[in-house]
Amino acid sequence: MIAVITGDIINSQHADTEVWITKLKNLLENWGSTPQTWEIYRGDEFQFKCNIDDVFWYFLAIKSIIKSQENLDVRMAIGIGEESFSSEKITESNGTAYVHSGRLLNDLKSDGHTVAIKTSNESVDRDLNILLKWASKDFDNWTMATAEIIHEMIMNQDITQEDLAKKFTISQSSVSQRLKRANYELIVETNQYFRKKISEL
């Protein structure tokens, strides 16, 4: 099984495309090459395939890099399933993971939520989607400053608060406050729960 994240940038027409697209490309390049593993297409849509264990962490990394840009947000549909056909271009690959993800993004556009997951197990979907709806109330309201800190923590889990304070030229207590406001410890616990639920598939 694989995970496929299909997403689109919210408010992309009100932002400097070169800035967000460069950041997103640089992030996705950490995890694989384009166009086989990821692709940005139709201006502000993207697709990315990854292993199922880390999908929540990847989702958060993308969410935080986009939210660290002014006025931007991102909608993402996580599909988990098989890859029955692997093309040189991810947008031409196929299988249940791709179908789940693509259809779900259309649903998200109509229901107003920014993230959802679809697997072949309705019980797992129900549990994880309730969790994502609650969590999104937090994630969707991250400030740019909070998103930046969260992104650094996700991409470098060994980084210390002292390192973060130096990087952002703020005090360590400010770093600590931002992490508390972002409920970072709860995010880590949520990632562990996600991994556990997905391992049951």
From TrEMBL:
<dbReference type="GO" id="GO:0003677">
    <property type="term" value="F:DNA binding"/>
</dbReference>
<dbReference type="InterPro" id="IPR010982">
    <property type="entry name" value="Lambda_DNA-bd_dom_sf"/>
</dbReference>
<protein>
    <submittedName>
        <fullName>MarR family transcriptional regulator</fullName>
    </submittedName>
</protein>
<dbReference type="Pfam" id="PF16264">
    <property type="entry name" value="SatD"/>
</dbReference>
<dbReference type="InterPro" id="IPR032580">
    <property type="entry name" value="SatD"/>
</dbReference>
